[in-house]
Design brief:
It is built from no helices and eight strands. It is mostly beta strands and 83 residues long.
């Protein structure tokens, strides 16, 4: 059971970011979605997710993903701020 992933772990996000740097998603409204609200995928660094309303969704609010070691550091997700 410990190795069983969350049921929505492979679902996409209504907003999906990959390789994005130094950006922000601020004060958005995401609702009535059948998957994640926001997905930060491989290589997302220095991104701010702030003040968003995320309701009535099928997956979760914000999913932070990224490459595993020993991938190149450019594929790691890091220094992101979610409030």
């Amino acid at each position: 059971m410990a190795a069983t992933p969350q049921s929505a772990v492979h679902a996409p996000g209504a907003i999906s970011l990959a390789g994005v740097r130094n950006s922000a998603v601020i004060d958005c409204r995401l609702e009535h979605i059948g998957f994640w609200g926001i997905n930060l995928a491989d290589g997302v660094q220095n991104v701010t997710i702030e003040g968003n309303t995320i309701t009535d969704i099928g997956g979760g609010g914000v999913k932070v993903d990224g490459a595993d070691y020993p991938s190149p550091p450019s594929r790691f997700s890091a220094n992101n701020r979610i409030t």
